[in-house]
Amino acid sequence: MQPMIKVEELTKRFAGVTALNDVSFEVQRGEIVGFLGPNGAGKSTTMRILTGFIPASSGRVEVGGQDVFENSLVVRERVGYMPENNPLYTDMRVTEYLKFRARIKRLPRAERNERIPEVMESTGIKEVAHRIIGHLSKGYRQRVGLADALLAEPDLLILDEPTIGLDPVQIRQVRQLIKDLGKRHTILLSTHILPEVEMTCNRVIIIHRGRILASDTPDSLTRKLNAGGVIQVEVRGPGSEVQAALRAVEGVESIEAKVLADGFVQVNLTPKPGADPREKVYQVVAARGWTLRELTRARTTLEDIFVQITHEDDEAEEERREQRRSVRR
Amino acid sequence: MKNVPPLLRRELNAYFASVLGYVALMFFLVVMGVTFAVVVRYLNSGPTQLTAMKILFSMFWVPSLFIVPAITTRLLAEEKRAGTLEMLMTAPVTDVEVVLAKYFGAVVLYTLMWALTGFYVLILKHFSGSGTMLDLGPIFSGYLGVIVIGQFFVAVGLLASSLTKSQVAAALISFALVFLMLIVPNWLTYLVPTGPLGRVFHAVSAFDQMEDFERGIVDARPLVLYLSGTVLALFITTRVVESRKWK
How far is A253 from chain B (nearest CA, A)? Predict the structure, then answer.
């Protein structure tokens, strides 16, 4: 099946600044994809290009098999978009605004009358239907923006920082709403909040300095980077023997051991890249008849991964710059 | 162009959802009402060549210079500042549709203002029964004149609004442009009254043109001048709105 979003070698330059540099990715139908990156990484720029607000400098962007530049109006009819900071006409009432949006999205009258109550129901804004948008709380406004994005039953929802500026209760509500919407829509959302991605998305695309650094499920990203993480073992047994036995386990790179006050030996194992020696460790300990009370791998969170990946990239960038400088000299 | 009606409706609602529409109407009606009252008093004092509506139409520069910038500067500048332009332009509407809807919205408000002075015509008609005739021809052509000239300045104001995010800056640009095109040519006709240059100044002076319209003369030249000027201003505005795409 055709992917919902197909971006190939997308580059965007603003006067003197390269905001996106050779970005390629795909989003399949039904996925909830999180676009993760620090501020200024190029998330909003990518979304603005996907929705046809600004064109790319080079590269190809397709939504639902349609070129975003050539068939901009067709694409815009199929995409529900909530821009960063969710700009709305603050002088309008909620229903009035949704009616206006439904009209310019070319919904026929019958469909309008059906969809507006539906989206107000699903986003929980029925009770503020007749209030002026400018008088609503940020949480409600966010939901009005979501309701608008949903009006035309779009194939694809693009949400730029949907939970920014909300209080924790509102954040939870909006996240739940996005999860529910993910059952029927393909969603691309951007955020710089990591737990958000872990909670709502099937897949994460990490973007930094206009380039994609990683794209995977939150779990497998965590797993991949975990291989190589430190394994902590606590064993009751003679200190030197324990050390020798564990050092000999296949897949162990190095160990550090310390005898604890209660007679247990605490060992930190650094496995060889890609190896997971936990099973072997257990077998060795069990074969000697020692008592094992802990065998854990320090769990890397998505946050660690993010910091690690972007940090590596920063270092690489620094190196490149250094090289360029030395070449010039 | 299918999206123009809903967009236009939103524009008109926006004028009256805020105080702007009411304040603009009030300002206009105060100026015109006071003028009308004074004029009627004056005309009652003795025989004259002037008519009440003629004097009223000759006040056309007040709404063009003050009200037109006031009702147009918000149109695109505010959408840019608030970011709502992004919402608008990512909906399936074209840039031209948005520009046209905003232009027509302001023209409708401007026309509505002048339409309210129709009550003055009714008042004159009611009280001028004895012997005098109210000549409707020059009244119609006078209305045509103020609207044709005014709609051009609306387009100019919209252009000014497209150039910046700041409403105040847009208002000043728009005021300066209207001043240059409306007031300055009139002054130049006094500085250079004759000769080929003088003829050009007379031809582009809105005051000279309004004198014709007030007298019931509908000259095609100002109509062509202002309508083509509007097309040009709206075209440039559309290009400016599109310019986000070439940056």
Answer: 53
- Residues A198/A216, Cβ–Cβ less than 8 Å: no
The whole domain housing B12 covers: 4-245
For residue B17, list chain A residues with Cβ-Cβ distance below 8 A: 91-92
Mention every residue, 6+ apart, whose C-beta is less than 8 A from residue B126. none
Question: From CA B9, how far away is CA B157, in angstroms rounded?
Answer: 20
CB of A208 within 8 Å of a chain B CB? The answer is no
Point out the least confidently predicted range of A54-68, A227-241, B7-21. Answer: A227-241
Most confident of the following: A38-47, A187-196, A266-275: A38-47
**Same domain as A256, residue A197:** no
- Quote ipTM for the complex: 0.86
| Cα B149 to Cα B211: distance, rounded to the nearest angstrom | 13
Which of A15, A73, A106 is closest, CB to CB, to B247?
Answer: A15
CB contacts under 8 A, A 101-120 vs B, are 101, 103-106
Considering only alpha carbons, which residue of chain B is nearest residue A77? B92
Q: Are residues A151 and A250 both part of a single domain? A: no
**DSSP code of B60?**
T
Q: Which residue of chain B comes nearest to A78, CA vs CA?
A: B92
User: Which CATH number belongs to the domain containing residue A35 in this structure?
Assistant: 3.40.50.300
Residues of B in contact with A50 (CB under 8 A): none
Report how many domains make up chain B.
1
| Domain of A244, in residue numbers | 230-297
The verdict on A80 and A213 lying in the same domain is yes
Residue A45 has pLDDT above 60, yes or no: yes
Residues A213 and A86 in one domain: yes
Whether A261 and A181 share a structural domain:
no
- Total-model pTM: 0.83
Which residue among B9, B86, B92 places its CB closest to the CB of A53? Answer: B86
Q: A297 is written with which tokens?
A: 């791998």
Residues A44 and A122 in one domain: yes
Partners of B14 on chain A (C-beta within 8 Å) are 89, 91-92
The number of folded domains in chain A is 2
Local structure of A116: helix, strand or coil: helix
Residue B59: how many CB atoms within 10 A of its CB?
A: 18
